[in-house]
């Protein structure tokens, strides 16, 4: 009985992660095009964002491989479980799909705000994965531990380039109070409300196909 509960916890946790990794790299691909259009000369920054995209895709594939080997599909989760989805909604007052990329491209402050949002998301991701690596339930599956160790190693290169680039462009590189509150609200609502709800919801459905190859 306990083993089934632990396995269920793992599947719920990784279902949320696989959604966020896919959401992350697919939206970063759009952002990279915006960066190249606005700052064509920032080649090193382009490379850093490209690496970020590649790492997120790699993480997605690792989580997908985990489910494939288990011969199971992740639980179906949507934007309510997406860290960046919720962060964008709180800061920009719209969904990711409705972000006006042209308006952001034309407004430096909005663009810098978006970069800070990504930086904060990745910093939170590093804190979270370090906490999970200490979690006894996570430690019961060495495979999951190995995946999170890879994520932990990659994570610093996902937020440090944004901070350096913001400094270089004389922008506020540290989050403001509103952004900090949005970060805390997003994190704790996921940890204390949404994840427990998904774990206890016996009617949760699984995906019928992965969102990407």
Q: Could you please describe the fold and organization of this structure?
A:
By secondary structure, the chain is mainly alpha-helical. The protein has one domain (7-200): Ferritin. It has nine helices and no strands. It has helices at residues 2-38, 43-70, 83-92, 101-106, 108-133, 136-139, 142-154, 156-168, 177-200. α5 (108-133) runs antiparallel to α7 (142-154). It is globular.
Characterize this entry briefly.
This protein is mainly α and 213 residues long. Helices cover 76% and strands 0% of the residues.
Defining key terms:
213 residues, Ferritin, 76% helix
- The parts where pLDDT drops under 50 for at least 5 residues are none
**In angstroms, what is the radius of gyration?**
17 Å
According to CATH, what is the topology? Ferritin
Strand-pairing-aware structural class: mainly alpha
Domains (count):
1
Average pLDDT = 91
Task: Describe the main β-sheet briefly.
Answer: none
Helix content: over 70%
Query: What is the rounded distance between the termini?
Result: 34 Å
Shape: globular
Highest-level CATH class: Mainly Alpha
Please tell me the CATH architecture by its name. Up-down Bundle
């Amino acid at each position: 009985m306990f083993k089934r509960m632990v396995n269920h916890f793992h599947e719920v946790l990784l279902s949320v992660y696989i959604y966020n990794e896919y959401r992350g790299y697919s939206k970063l691909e759009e952002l990279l095009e915006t960066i190249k259009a606005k700052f064509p000369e920032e080649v090193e920054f382009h490379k850093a964002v490209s690496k970020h995209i590649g790492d997120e895709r790699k993480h997605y594939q690792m989580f997908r491989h985990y489910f494939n080997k288990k011969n199971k599909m992740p639980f179906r989760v949507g934007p309510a479980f997406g860290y960046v989805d919720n962060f964008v909604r709180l800061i920009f007052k719209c969904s990711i799909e409705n972000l006006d990329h042209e308006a952001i491209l034309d407004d430096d402050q909005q663009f810098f705000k978006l970069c800070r949002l990504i930086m904060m998301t990745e910093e939170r991701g590093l804190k979270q994965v370090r906490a999970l690596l200490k979690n006894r339930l996570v430690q019961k599956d060495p495979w999951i531990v190995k995946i999170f160790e890879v994520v932990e190693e990659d994570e610093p290169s996902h937020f440090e380039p944004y901070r350096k680039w913001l400094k270089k462009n004389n922008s506020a590189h540290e989050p403001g109070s509103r952004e900090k509150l949005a970060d805390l609200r997003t994190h704790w609502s996921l940890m204390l409300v949404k994840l427990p709800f998904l774990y206890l919801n016996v009617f949760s459905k699984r995906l019928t196909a992965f969102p990407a190859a």
